[in-house]
Amino acid sequence: MDLGLFGWIFVGLIAGSISGWFVGSRSVQGCLPTMIVGVVGGVLGGWLAGAMGLGRVEGLLGALVFATVGAVLIRLILRAIERD
């Protein structure tokens, strides 16, 4: 299933929002930064899935799970940078 550009933006927005519930970050506020964190998190999550031998991410739910994991990692990195 290919989500397309708008599908990944939608998944990124949801993943960024979910990651905010888990981690939070003062530097990531608003729709666009949240979406960017989610989309970048999706790329990171997809890469991590491949690196861990889990293969391709399939379906909307798989994309959302891996995008959320990646977005949480991005927010943790941003939180560490904020503290310094």
How does this model look, in words?
- With 84 residues, this protein is an all-alpha fold.
- It has one domain.
- The protein is built from three helices and no strands.
- It has helices at residues 4-22, 31-51, 59-83.
- Helix 1 crosses helix 2 (31-51) and helix 2 (31-51) packs across helix 3.
- The chain is globular and about 35 Å long.
- The N and C termini lie far apart (41 Å).
- The relative contact order is 0.22.
- The model has no long low-confidence stretch (mean pLDDT 78).
Summary, kept brief:
With 84 residues, the protein is mainly alpha-helical. It is built from 3 helices and no strands.
Topology record:
Elements: H1 4-22, H2 31-51, H3 59-83
User: Structural class, from secondary structure content?
Assistant: mainly alpha
Number of strands: 0
Average pLDDT, all residues: 78
Helix content percent band: over 70%
Low-confidence parts lasting 5 or more residues at pLDDT below 50? none
β-strand percent reads under 5%
Count of domains? 1
Contiguous helical run count: 3
CA distance, first residue to last residue: 41 Å
- Rg, alpha carbons: 12 Å
The outline comes out as globular
The profile of the biggest β sheet is: none
Helices and strands, in N-to-C order? HHH
